[in-house]
Amino acid sequence: MKNTNRREKQLSYRYYIAVIIISVLSLLGLFTTQYVLNQQENYASIINKSGRQRMLSQQSTMLLLQFSTIPSSNQLHREVIKERLEESISLMEKSHKELTTGIAEDGSVFSLSPEIRDMYFAKPLAVDTQVLHHITTVRKIMAEPEPRVSAAFVDNAIGRLLTSLNEVVKRYEVESNSYSAVLRKIEIIVCITTLLVLIVLVRFVFFPLVRSGIKNEETLIAEQKETELLLTQAKEAAENASRMKSEFLASLSHELKTPMNAIVGLTYLSLETEITSKQRDYLNKISSSAGHLVALIDDLLDFSKINTTSITLKDAPFNMANVMDNLASVITCTALEKGLEVNFNIEQDVPFQLIGDQQRLEQILGHLVSNAVKFTGEGHVDVTTELRDRDDSWVRLRFTVSDTGVGVRGKEIERLFLPFTQGEESNTRQHGGTGLGLAICKDLVDLMNGEIWVEQKSEPGATFVCELIFSYDELQSQAHPEIPELEGLKVLLVDDHPMARTSMKHILGSFHLQTKDVGSAKEALVELESNYQKTTPYDIVVTDWQMPEMDGVEAARIIRQRPEKYGSPVMILVTAFSKAEAVQQAEEDFDGLLLKPVSRAVLLGTLLASQQQKNVARSSHSSFVSERALPRRLPGLDLTKGIAQIGGNPQIYLLLLKKFARNQRGQVEVIRRENSEGNSEALYRHLHTLKGVAGNICAPKLFQLATVLEQDFNKSVKSDRKLSYAKIESLEQAMEEVITSIHSLVSEESGAGKSVGVHRGGELDPDLLNPIIDQLDVLLADSDTDAEKLLEQLAEYLQETDLDSKVAILQEQIGQYEFDEALETVQNIREIINK
Amino acid sequence: MKKKILIIDDAPENIDFLVGILKEQYKVVAARNGEKALQLAGAENAPDLILLDIMLPDMDGIEVCRHLKSDPGTMNIPVLFITGKTDDEAIQQGFDVGGADFIAKPFHYYLVKNRIATHLELKMLREQALLEQK
Q1: Termini Cα distance of chain A
Q2: Are A346 and A354 in contact (CB under 8 A)?
Q3: Cα A1 vs. chain centroid, distance in angstroms?
Q4: In Å, how far are A240, A259, A400 from A245, measured between CA atoms?
Q5: How far apart are CA A152 and CA A500, in angstroms?
Q6: CA angle, corner A776, sides to A770 and A781, nearest 5?
Q7: Cα atoms in the 13 Å half-sphere on the side-chain side of A744
Q8: Residue A258 or residue A120, greater confidence
Q9: Beta bridge pairs of residue A517
């Protein structure tokens, strides 16, 4: 590098010197040329003048001869000739002066060579004397009254003077030629020198300069190439690292799922065992945290999958209504907890059967809907599917998810679809989540060649829009089939929310039901009454609960009280409230309960069930008389209602009861403790849960007491939320009653006998132990998991014996499902016993 | 007599969970590696159904399933893959080697119970149909 710099410096010096030399040489050449031209001009002028002297000497001689021959009578002629003569002589005199002094008329000076000087002033020629003599003689003759020109004068003038002047002219010419030759030589020398200098400069300055330029350029290009190579390598390394990270993330997510499965599963199993309320509380928390973690892992897995582009889209036929139903079933729980209304609406022109990747579509919409629910405190979430464009084989569908939540503002929109970002940072803290949902949506939508964006709007809330293209099969896209059980039924739909009405109407329309919708309970009453009068009564009324002026429950009460006015339609309540409250409300005047968002399948199921129930009621025959003939009532339990409530299946009802007995028996104790410790939040939660589940199994007394306590809680002042101990006591009694009833049912069902416990203390009795060991042997040889149960029995017999430690090892081995090792241990134990 | 189910999983916790939800209804045997699994599946009193994890220490679940399906003694036992590997490729591989179903971890107990019931019923119907044919 240093060398290159020095060389560059040297070259630049050489370059400057070269420029100076070329400039000097050019100037020298220019001056030489100018000088040569100037000198040539001078010589030409001198030669010209000296030539003219020759001509003037002849002319003056001739004029003088003429002048002397003109008679004095011809005075005019004489005067003319005299004038011309005078002129000629004067010019000759002037020129001679210039030629002999070396000073021209215009003041310019030229030098006389010694040879010329000699010719003028020295003998033999002495041209100067001759010229002056000629001039003097001519003037002298002119001045005479009768001029006479002597023959000697004429001879001298024509002969000697002319020859002398001729000599001078020749001399001048010779001198001029030789001078020009010298100058030309100088000029050639200057030219050659310039040329040589140029060659030298080209060799030592310009050529190295150009070469170093080329070299520089080559170096530059090489450097550029090197940089490019480095950049490419760095890019590849970064991409590799990113891909490896994604792959690592994907495999990590897989690996995480296995232990998560164990955590979720074992927590569930632990919750099924008899545990204290504190332990239950902990386990519930573990369960919910594990649920969050699983969702997070799923998100991460999806995100890394898309990033490693290991997703391939499926092309399979699917039904849009199923997509909405699946979404509804996923979101219902959260929406209910928050009391949000979620409406799903598919416009009627959307083809019934589409072809594409249903799973990915559900994933996209699932993220959008769960986001909407997550960020909406109160109000509603509307999900609409519309047809934007269609051809013979494809449709462009627009999915709109709009909510009444916190919304997104201008700046946030730009970052919204980037991974690991959420609208506002405070939102992340408040609502949780990975911030991957929308990034996954965007990636999936891109993968499906669709578009996704957020719409700006003036009212609160956010609207996410996504457009995707699907194929569809015209032949497969026929309308929904008719359902014979529902044929000819007339439905009145009551809801104040237009979107909810539209969505429900579309679903009811797909069942081919004659549907009319109204926006308020009062309109519904008018419509029912007028139709009943016209003897075209409605068969079914599907009504929203919460409506302004009159709510659905109140309207139902009025309808039920005046069957002669409104008829007795099947009443179905639709609500976004949590189940327990809704069940209580729906119990009296309604035949069915639907939770928002209503899915097509659930609505169909409810309608069919209500019709079945109606038919059964007509034939005054209970639909839930089971094969096991359960009693209609037991202390604290209304079995008939309970079975009806879960769809008429006594087996499931029994399971529910068992689960209730297992999970809720300690609940009152928990309520009592939270009450005395003043944990109002936990107290309310437990009370609320108990009320809900009591409603679910139709335990009227327990439900009633829990409701009263909940009301007491709500009425109490915040600072002192203590409940009456007496009322909690009653609650406990009601619970005992229910549990006893359940046990009587369950024991009847199982009729399990107790094992006979035999304990021989510290002594080992081979007769007693061997059969167990034999049995254990068989189970272990089969890798049968029942071995664990049998081991418990064995462990009981071997308690506080020398074999305690062996049993512990055996327990560990069986717990780890290492049956072969366990077999060896059992063998060992057998040997010790039989010693 | 209770139907017999063989669970193959390298994590004892997962076996615990499955045993917990199945032991009431079924006779449950378990193995923690492929070799033991093949030995149990080929035993005299063969299982009626197999729940198989893909990630195993000695050979992977796919390999175990391939062995099972190539042995006439075990080829009719339905194999249900239970795994955290839920990518399309793994699922396809599972079905390719003769797996009857795929259950993704983490799963809900009712899903496993219902799938098992369905496949046991299918197996029974198949066997009945075969008998009737004969």
Answers
A1: 93
A2: no
A3: 45
A4: 8, 21, 34
A5: 153
A6: 125
A7: 13
A8: A120
A9: A493
Structure token pair of residue B51:
């729940």
Q: What angle do CA A404, A407, A409 make, to 5 degrees?
A: 155
* A783/B27 Cβ within 8 A: no
Contact A777, A826 (CB under 8 A): yes
Helices (H) and strands (E) in chain A, counts: 29, 14
Beta bridge partners of A400: A384, A465
Q: Which of A49-53, A385-389, A497-501, B8-12 ranks highest by mean pLDDT?
A: A385-389
CB A463 within 8 A of CB A511: no
The 3 state secondary structure assigned to A85-134 is HHHHHHHHHHHHHHHHHCECCCCCECCCCHHHHHHHHCCCCCHHHHHHHH
> How far from A251 is each of A304, A456, A561, A797, B55, CA to CA, in Å?
9, 39, 64, 47, 12
A644: its two tokens: 């009806």
Spatial CA neighbour of A450 closest among A349, A347, A363, A323: A363
ipTM reported for the complex surpasses 0.90: no
Q: For residue B36, list chain A residues with Cβ-Cβ distance below 8 A.
A: 783, 819-820
B130 touches chain A (CB under 8 A): no
For residue A305, the chain B residue with the least C-alpha distance is: B87
Length of chain A equals 835
Cβ contacts of A265 on chain B, cutoff 8 Å: 13-14, 16-18, 20-21, 106, 109
Rounded CA separation A738/A241 (Å)? 62
In angstroms, rounded to a whole number, what is the distance separating the alpha carbons of residues A347 and A696? 35
CA angle A388, A389, A395 (to 5 degrees): 100
**Amino acid at the residue A537:** P
| Closest chain A residue by Cα to residue B106 | A261
Q: For A744-782, how does the pLDDT look when each residue is reduced to its tens digit (9 = 90+)?
A: 776 655 443 333 333 444 567 777 788 888 889 989 988
Phi/psi at A634 (nearest 5 deg)? -135, 160
What does the alpha-carbon distance between residue A414 and residue A408 come to, in Å, rounded to a whole number?
10
Residue A316's DSSP bridge partners are A356
Distance CA(B39)–CA(B31), nearest Å, equals 10
Q: Is A772 helix (H, G, I), strand (E, B) or coil?
A: helix
Query: Do residues B43 and B68 make contact, with C-beta atoms less than 8 angstroms apart?
Result: no
DSSP string, chain B: ---EEEEE-S-HHHHHHHHHHHTTTSEEEEESSHHHHHHHHTSSS--SEEEE-S--SSS-HHHHHHHHHHSTTTTTS-EEEEES--SHHHHHHHHHTT--EEEESS--HHHHHHHHHHHHHHHHHHHHHHHHH-
- Residue reference for tokens 């386990």: A283
What is the largest distance, in Å, between two alpha-carbon atoms of chain A? 202
* Higher local confidence (pLDDT), A697 or B100: B100
Is the per-residue pLDDT at B43 higher than 50? yes
Closest A-chain CA to B47 = A782
Q: Which residue of B has its CA nearest to A813?
A: B12
Q: Does A782 touch chain B (CB under 8 A)?
A: yes
- Contact check, Cβ <8 Å, A816/B12: yes
Identify which of A506, A212, A193 has the alpha carbon closest to the alpha carbon of residue A349. Answer: A506
Out of A261, A784, A819, name the one closest to residue B106 (CB): A261
**Nearest CB to A266 within list B16, B32, B36:** B16
Q: In terms of pLDDT, which residue wins out, A580 or A667?
A: A667
DSSP-based three-state secondary structure for A515? strand
| A718 token code pair | 């915040």
Closest C-alpha to A340, from A404, A287, A261 = A404
Per residue in A660-713, pLDDT (tens digit) is: 776 677 788 888 888 888 888 778 777 877 877 787 777 888 888 888 888 788
Joined together, the tokens standing for residue A754 give 């107790």
